[in-house]
## 1
Amino acid sequence: MLKELRHLSGLSKNNLCQYPNQISLFHLNAANLPPRMQSISRFFPLLSSQANIVITCHQKPDGDAMGSTLGLYHFLIQLGHKVTVISPTNWADFLNWMPGVDKVINYDYNRQKAQAIIDEATIIFCLDFNILHRTKNMETPLAKAKCIKVLIDHHEQPQEEAFDYGISLTSKSSTCEMVYDFIVDAGYKDKINLDVAKCLYTGVMTDTGSFRFPSTKASVHLMVAYLKEIGLEHSEIHSNIFDCSLENRLRFTGFALVNRMEVLYQYNTAIFYIYSQDLRQYDIKTGDTEGLVNYLLTMKGIRFGAIVIDRDEERKWSFRSKGDFDVNTFARLHFEGGGHFNAAGGRSDEKVDDTVNKFKQLLPNYEQALQ
Ligand code: 5GP
Ligand code: MN
């Protein structure tokens, strides 16, 4: 009940009109609460009639976002649907080997074309994000779209009122694992071909830190066992993702470790702070900074790692923790962000040095939690 009230408190009458499939004033029940996002199993029957489908994910898609959208794409086209994947922004080059990636539309570069496809869509799948603003410039087009919206995601606190059907399980390793479950639970396990398998393996692997995070439950290994049974070559995928750095990326990593890292032993915390001139000097592109923050947690005793990167339009934070320090709440409270318990992101409009100072000044409040 409390959760539902929280959702309601964020809704104005205008908001209500944006989601005609889900919420109208006439739909409010006796307690004046909007109906909840319906269970994904109620959506399954819709898979059997031909639809115009758009699949999208969060901005700057990572392995899980790109893997889940393309994995779902390769499944849905087998059912005869017309399917288009639209990414809100560009993505890292290390995802460019993925089957079907050449057909993905970058919303930022092709707004008119993407908008026309969204206008024609009868179903939009929203994968690997919990809140529409994670799609950046696609937030308004998605909110305004009148078609059925389906959420499949594993982030904390989803914006349920924005979706007609969906499943949100924070216990799941990755959205790719959830798309696998979606296909199996809908009765289409036989449609998991090698293209689907390659895409879904990618996201499970990247979101579990190559199967080492606590989210790697037995279900993950059972899924991977099935993908192996149908012929997946997993080593190739590890190589495609991790062994494709250029020299400048390695040199930049060295530079950041030597010059842009600070260890705050009192709080078992370490941070990287990257200025825009550093990115220019080393010709750093989208994706080149991915994984850098994880180095911090390889230091003995470090429980909280953070990186702030000076992007053109904002300072982008990434937070990682080990054990029971909740970075999702930290990011939500202080840096307009969120994510998962042990991995989250946020942002700031302040200059790098100012936002870093803010971060450091917060640490005394968490001294106990970080011991
Ligand atoms: P990363 O630090 O790798 O960008 O993100 C870590 C996790 O937090 C990912 O699951 C990502 O989707 C999520 N995340 C990153 N930035 C944000 C943000 O600003 N808001 C929310 N809600 N989640 C974020
Ligand atoms: Mn994910």
## 2
Amino acid sequence: MEKILIVGPASQILGIRIAQELNINYFNTESKTFPDGENYLRINLDNESLIEGKEIIIVQSTGPSSSGNQNARLIELLMMIDAVKRMGAEKIVVVIPYLAYARQDKIFRPGECKFANLVLCLIDSMRVDELYVVDVHAPKILEEVQCKWINIDSMKILADYIKSLDVKEIVVVAPDKGAVERSKAFAKHFGEDVPVDYFEKVRDVKTGEITMSGKLSLKNKDVVVSDDIIATGGTMAKAIKLSKESGANRVFAVATHALLLENAKFRIIKAGADEIIGTDSIDNEASKVSLAKAIVDYLK
Ligand code: R5P
């Protein structure tokens, strides 16, 4: 079946990269916000029959950016799915490099909802055939999804990039205990015996404020602080500061999804990071590693 890719407004570079790797035709979209705040989206084609009977791959990240917040990104995604369904797509494959709301996967305080699950449920309810996400914050939420799904692992390609920086005596540091398992898996890409350590992080569930403590044996080590998401950079900056205080030589701030909100870049670099490294799940200056090949490996 012929494949066609729809490049969503939030994944313009990654979408084209994937289409080029797959060597398939692609269309972008036209999107805007109406004066009343409602979103508008159309797939930028003149002939709707081009979609009929085809396998349609939609690539749309749902992270916040200056041109759209995550709510708008989700609505645009639903609009793209609906549009290709209406035009007679035979198979619909959805690629969401960054899944918005994924951190709202538990009840932290009475009265909350698990919106992460609802986001997936909404997409699933549109009867898409396949769903691809990347390093989802809590992969367990995917277990409720009915369609075929894959949570793509970006650790190898992030590690390959870091290895190209001529790092020596690496230690992988997790910013909290919860990230240790992920960091252990990440460390394996640098070699069997690469040590993993972590700081103690406590987040106030009401204010969101974090405190972090710990002293590690990092003297003259090149440290890779790894997390799934950098949002405001508070977690990363604290882990980097403590790494430096623990004697680290170079320190790299690495995350699959480097949202870099507010003054995150300033905080992280001021704390002592040599470089901030993310993937193109979020299209910004930290997206030094492209997910295109890793995603294409699954789409093929
Ligand atoms: C939390 O569990 C996540 O893995 C990240 O550590 C967190 O989302 C980072 O947020 P921020 O950059 O705002 O500290």
